[in-house]
Write a structure and sequence with these properties.
single chain, H repeat-associated protein N-terminal domain-containing protein, YbfD_N, mainly alpha
Length: about 50
């Protein structure tokens, strides 16, 4: 995800404020660790779980 954000930073800036630049892999990990796996599976049942 970090690489995706860095490669597409200019495009992402068209709708996101990235004052500190693209988030690092640590930031993505911190955010993803807060998500509830059961809720994600319910929202996206087609994804492997």
């Amino acid at each position: 995800m970090e690489i995706f954000a860095k490669v597409r930073e200019e495009w992402l800036r068209t709708f996101l404020e990235l004052a500190g630049g693209c988030p690092s892999h640590d930031t993505f990990g911190d955010i993803l660790s807060l998500l509830n796996p059961a809720a994600l599976h319910q929202a996206f049942p087609f994804a492997p779980g």
